[in-house]
Amino acid sequence: QKEVEQNSGPLSVPEGAIASLNCTYSDRGSQSFFWYRQYSGKSPELIMSIYSNGDKEDGRFTAQLNKASQYVSLLIRDSQPSDSATYLCAWGGDSSYKLIFGSGTRLLVRP
Amino acid sequence: EAGVAQSPRYKIIEKRQSVAFWCNPISGHATLYWYQQILGQGPKLLIQFQNNGVVDDSQLPKDRFSAERLKGVDSTLKIQPAKLEDSAVYLCASSFDFGSSYNEQFFGPGTRLTVL
Questions:
Q1: Among B40, B45, B107, beta carbon nearest to A43
Q2: Residues B22-61: tens digit of each pLDDT
């Protein structure tokens, strides 16, 4: 059973701090990883994708992938109250390229 | 560019009734997905289409759920008869390419189903 594990949280950080969200996955053959943000009552919104080991930066967001450790993370710099949401980690890359999602980490950014 | 469209946004039915959801993907996207998201969980894939062919329906409860994608564009997901445990948000997503692991999926607003 291929799985994605995330801490459900909530992760509470003060405004302006760095929020670190983590995800582990069970399949060493996984090729692609995605971070989605989901506000309460809304649908998931793609914020980052990463395919290679190392870091990928996009604005205040940095995704980090370590395939050897089967670990992917998302860093949010200068966290804002508007970043308060559930962050879903997903991996894809099996034969049907479907995404397998974790259950999400709830992030709370305190003003 | 218009996003994925879904309707209805909300639906309340009684158990054993039937319900249908509609999805229109992003223009030009060949692959369409239906997910079920139960409160507190991540989305779970129900069925995946490439154009109008089924790629993966391994997690679709086929005794009560059915889906079709005629003409390779719009898709309909049906539940008949509904059970209490079907209460969830049904999300439609689409992606441009199939056959690539670099396959970013974009979600519609979802349909929130409540079964009483």
A1: B107
A2: 999 999 998 999 999 999 999 999 999 988 899 889 999 9
Instruction: Give CA A69 to chain center in angstroms.
Output: 16
Using CB atoms within 10 A of its CB, is residue B2 exposed (0-12), middle (13-18) or buried (19+)? Answer: exposed
pLDDT at B98: 62
Residue B108 contacts A where some CB pair is shorter than 8 Å = yes
Closest partner residue to A31 (CB to CB) among B99, B101, B108 is B101
- SS3 state of residue B84: helix
CA distance A45 to A87: 9
Chain B CB contacts of A100 below 8 Å:
45
Rounded CA-CA distance A12/A105 in Å is 11
Cβ pairs A/B, distance under 8 A: 59
For residue A99, is pLDDT > 70? yes
Give B 39-58 residues with CB within 8 A of chain A. Answer: 40-45, 48, 55-56
Beta carbons of B45 and A98 less than 8 Å apart: yes
Given a contact cutoff of 8 angstroms between Cβ atoms, the answer to whether A35 and A63 are in contact is yes
Strands (E), A1-111: 4-5, 11-14, 19-25, 32-38, 45-50, 54-58, 61-66, 71-76, 85-92, 100-101, 105-110
